[in-house]
Amino acid sequence: MNNQTRLRWCLAALCVLATVGISLSTAAAEETFDSLVRRLQGEKGKFAERHMALLKERYDLANRAAAGATMSRGKPVQEGVRVKLPEGMTWEKLAAMSPEEIREKNLWPAGFYPLPHPHHEAGGMVFPKFLIDETKKQTDRDLTRFDLDFDLPDHLLPEFPAPIYLTTRPDLGDVSKGQLVTLSNFNDLFKDVLNPKQLEGLRLLVTPFPQQQFNATEDRRSLKAHQGVACFDCHANGHTNAATHTVGDIRPNEHRHRIDTPTLRGVNVQRLFGSQRALKTIEDFTEFEQRAAYFDGIPADATRKGTNVLERGSQVHFMAEFQALLDFPPAPKLNVFGKLDPAKATASEMRGQEIFFGKGQCATCHTPPYYTDNLMHNLQVERFFKEKMINGRKASADGPIKTFPLRGIKDSPPYLHDDRLLTLEDTVEFFNLVLGLKLTAEEKKDLVAFLRCL
Q1: If DSSP codes are grouped into helix, strand and coil, which group holds residue 99?
Q2: Residue 372 vs residues 353, 368, 376: alpha-carbon distances, Å
Q3: What is the C-alpha to C-alpha distance for residues 41 and 59, in angstroms, rounded to an integer?
Q4: Read out DSSP for 405-434?
Q5: How many domains does the chain have?
Q6: Domain CATH code at residue 128
């Protein structure tokens, strides 16, 4: 083939590629919002069924409350190990095996693998129905997605609305007065409790801003053009309602983590923020959420859909100042050092504290009084399993994860950074395996009793 012939072939190939590109872009442009809704609603049932089958394979989702154990405002705490084991296996047998043996025999419990987003390929913010209903009732803003619903049952989630405790006014107890704080009531609830700067910070925290799935463009997942999402839609009442998302700072999509919405209680004692803990102050986190996390780390989307760039010296500062006032819930059995008062604790709780600071090695990372070392640790859980795809999520190495404070931990189910652990009992079994602790059944029970006191 001579050079002239090669040139003709290259030009012909470019023409074909250009034609295909035009056809594809034209086809994409031709999908109207109505056809997008029909297509995604048509696929909704398939993905919901896929995800529910995974949850039932992994967990016992029954409503089984612990006797005498409640969250701060009275919601029953769920008890028991909910992660299912392979047939014929027991936790004792599994704990006696090495990570290599568990990996080679494929015995890592299904519920200990990373938990995918309800539709991992689509991702995006998804809210529990109780939050959707109350927000719509108060503000007429609908956080329903037409393409997917939240996945975990209400009884496995934090209480709602959560109480709000302030470091500045511990004498007031729950300053939310049992209400979900929104734009419709924040002023009445807080005008006599906060100074004007803090009140303005709270106003911004309950103000909706455009977000990837909730915005006014046709590339949205709400049926109607939308005002957007407020910080306190996920961090309801400065706590958490277990709303989920996929992290914006990991690619490709199969490696993106499902996000557990962490509580904002006690952020004043924390030093690492963001899904990869790259942010060093609550101001950094607040600004990052608006600039990047709301739009999956895609600046072009933020520009097109309506990003609201917050001014660092006033708006961000005011929001951060209010967040820094959010306190942990009361823990009446703890002394000023964050340890149990022997006069108030049960024998089981005292034994659990001894395990926490001894055989369980929990205090290596979770140091009192707030039970965090403000560091990150790599648990290297990938030692126990071979990489595999799970509903669009690749189960592989998680990397370093933040040491979250354990104060008030019973108020914040589910657990770990991606919600894979439904109860404190699940969490104890997970770390018993990962850390090779060899705890007995009684020691595990006592450790859970201690954690409920924090």
Answers
A1: helix
A2: 15, 7, 10
A3: 27
A4: --TTGGGS-SBSTTS-B-SHHHHHHHHHHH
A5: 1
A6: 1.10.760.10
- Rg (C-alpha) for the chain, rounded Å, is 24
Measured distance CA(167)–CA(41) in Å, rounded: 45
- pLDDT tens-digit series, residues 411-451: 999 999 999 999 999 999 999 999 999 999 999 999 999 99
Q: Residue 51 has which token pair?
A: 């995800």
Residue 322 identity (one-letter amino acid): F
- Among 269, 285, 394, smallest CA distance to 324 is for 269
| Parent domain of 444 | 48-451
> What gap in Å lies between CA 260 and CA 341, rounded to an integer?
32
Per DSSP, 79 falls in state -
Q: Which amino acid is at 257?
A: H
Nearest 5°: CA angle at 180, between 176 and 185?
75
As a whole number of Å, the end-to-end CA separation of the chain is 79
Under DSSP, is residue 274 helix (H, G, I), strand (E, B) or coil? coil
The tokens describing 56, both together, are 């039932």
Q: Could you tell me if 416 and 428 are in contact, meaning their C-beta atoms sit under 8 angstroms apart? A: no
SS3 126: strand
Whether 248 is in a domain gets the answer yes
Q: What is the pLDDT of residues 66-90, one digit of tens each?
A: 999 999 999 999 999 999 999 999 9
| pTM for this model (two decimals) | 0.92
User: Residue 303 and residue 305: Cα distance in Å, rounded?
Assistant: 6
Please report which residue ranges of 297-454 form alpha helices under DSSP H: 299-305, 317-323, 347-357, 424-434, 441-451
CA 429-430-431 angle, to 5 degrees, is: 95
Q: Assess if residue 32 is contained within a domain.
A: no
Length of the chain: 454
CA distance 186 to 200: 10
- Domain annotation covers residue 350: yes
